[in-house]
Description:
Structural class: alpha/beta
Low-confidence stretches: none
Distance between the termini: 33 Å
Amino acid sequence: MNSTKIEKLSIIIPCYNESTTLALIVEEVISVSLKNTKKEIIIIDDGSKDNSPKIINDLQKKYPEIKFILNEQNVGVPEGLNIGIRNAAGDFVVLLN
């Protein structure tokens, strides 16, 4: 059986006003062990009006595998996911919604 080695997995998390749950979600994603596979976590903030951008900035300082993309205006989940996919560098992409 031929197997493909996954060197990097891109995990895309769209965000809009998620200040109460965002850190918990990211901590859960970080805690998942993928053995020798690196994680790239892309968080797309879609014009949040709450504290979400600050939380993402703080998480990004703590975890270098986080990539933060800020949309100044809300473009909706589908476009946010497309932005994340276009910025993903992993061999495979997982979408969290």
